[in-house]
């Protein structure tokens, strides 16, 4: 019984102490999509890691043209990834499908969805974007896209 108790308490203590410096492999709970939308104030494709509240506030109002009060985050332990698909080619949707850590980096996989060839283009140009909250890590981020074509 004495050997079992430390084995149970050690992982719980790690959770309580805020172990956010490293992501575990395929940890789907390590990230959270906090906001999405279909229009932004920029036609450019953009990937940006936001590391401070003032930078987040600027993105919230100026780039995403949102109203109201921006959310407040603990940027000592977390960071936010801004993903904007841009206007060309017009993406229909955008999603973050996985975060996983390896020895030297954190891999993030994004999945934009596009209309298949021959499908009519949407009457209104959409510019999907999303904001993803994830633990602050001391590793480089490797962001890849896995585009998906949607038939009409």
Class derived from helix and strand content: alpha/beta
- The sequence of SSEs as H and E is HEEHEEEEEE
Number of DSSP-assigned strands? 8
Spatial gap, N to C terminus: 61 Å
The residue fraction in helices comes out at 10-25%
Shape summary: flat
Rounded mean pLDDT score: 78
Question: Could you please describe the fold and organization of this structure?
Answer:
This protein is an alpha/beta fold. The chain has one domain (20-150). 16% of the residues lie in helices and 34% in strands. It contains 2 helices and 8 strands; from the N terminus they run H-E-E-H-E-E-E-E-E-E. It has helices at residues 4-16, 53-63, and strands at 32-37, 46-50, 78-84, 93-101, 106-115, 129-135, 141-145, 148-150. Residues 1-22 have low confidence and may be disordered.
């Amino acid at each position: 019984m004495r050997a079992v108790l430390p084995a149970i308490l050690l992982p719980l203590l790690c959770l309580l102490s805020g172990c956010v410096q490293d992501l575990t492999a395929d940890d789907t709970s390590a990230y959270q999509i906090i906001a999405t939308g279909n229009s932004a104030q920029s036609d450019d494709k953009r990937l940006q890691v936001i590391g401070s509240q003032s930078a987040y506030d600027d993105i919230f109002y100026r780039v995403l043209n949102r109203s109201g009060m921006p959310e407040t985050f603990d940027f000592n332990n977390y960071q936010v990834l801004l993903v904007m698909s841009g206007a060309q080619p017009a993406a229909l949707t955008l999603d973050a499908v996985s975060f996983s850590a390896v020895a030297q980096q954190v891999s993030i996989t994004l999945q934009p969805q596009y209309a298949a060839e021959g499908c009519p283009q949407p009457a209104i140009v959409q510019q999907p974007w999303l904001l993803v909250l994830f633990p602050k890590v001391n590793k480089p981020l490797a962001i890849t896209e896995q585009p998906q074509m949607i038939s009409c």
